[in-house]
Amino acid sequence: MAGKKPLLVALIIITVSAAAGLTALDYIQIQQRLIVATTTSLYETGLLTYLIPSFEVRWNVKVHLIAVGTGQAIALGRDGDCDLVLVHARNLEDEFIQQGYGLHRVTLWYNDFIIIGPENDPANITGLTNVTEAFIRIYSAGEMGRCNFYSRGDSSGTEEREKQIWLNTGLLTPDPNVNKWYKRTGQGMSETLIITNEDPAGYTITDRGSYVNLINRISLKILVENSTLLLNPYSAILVNPEINQRVNIQLAVKFIAYLCWSETQKMVDEYKKNKIQLFHSCYGKSNSTDLGFDTDEQVAESLAYWDPIIKAYYS
């Protein structure tokens, strides 16, 4: 079946272009498309749909977004089914590049994770700045039947960060077959927030943007925030064109350069929902690699590759 997919696409292009009086080549040139695999949490904030139109107009192209968990987005890149990935799980990103599937990773912006739950807070975590301690208290309260914790359970960047925090506690990541208070939704962030909200004793970890996006629909409160361990950087990675000849590497390079461009970075900082800034630009800035940011050396490497491209296309 896999071998028939390009043929099917070709037949569709020929059929559509013939109906419009165009050759297949004309159709491809007019409808040049960039496929971006990204995360549900980023997509649902609306940031990309805010940034993309200017790029589409500038280059007369169409950007197609595939919103899934980070693990699934990287799998699409591994299979050559997208042109670039825009994700937020450093360990998975590094593995993707080390295995030869990705090229020229660059950190673009960040927001942060927050721990949310019911206002009465049966786990007693309100105001903690130590996220590890908050998870220990949730675990203890869960074992005593006082609360439940909802994990996305979808190989997303959010779940990866959750696992990292559980590891820091010295406890094993809870098993829903053993720890009945620990629930895996298998859903994106918005769905997980809604499910958690239906439980009067429910807690979860979420990126701030997804929470703000639903703030008028849910009663969950921010209980733990502003911890270094909760910083959440997003990065773009080119898909290696040697994986699949369909990968549009030239357009992918233009798009990532556009996201790095100072004018676009300014748009990122200005983007708000409910009067709250959701993201902070960070192209060319260093921080701790433990949190997914780049070291000074890695930033220098990114600048050496991307700055000349930005200058060529956007100066």
From TrEMBL:
Q: Where is the PBP domain?
A: 33-259
InterPro entries (alphabetical)? ABC-Tungstate_binding, PBP_domain
Give one Pfam hit by family name.
PBP_like_2
| Superkingdom of origin organism | Archaea
Concerning SUPFAM superfamilies, the annotation shows:
Periplasmic binding protein-like II
Write down the PANTHER family for this protein, in alphabetical order: EXTRACELLULAR TUNGSTATE BINDING PROTEIN
Protein name in the entry? Substrate-binding domain-containing protein
Give the organism the record lists: Odinarchaeota yellowstonii (strain LCB_4)
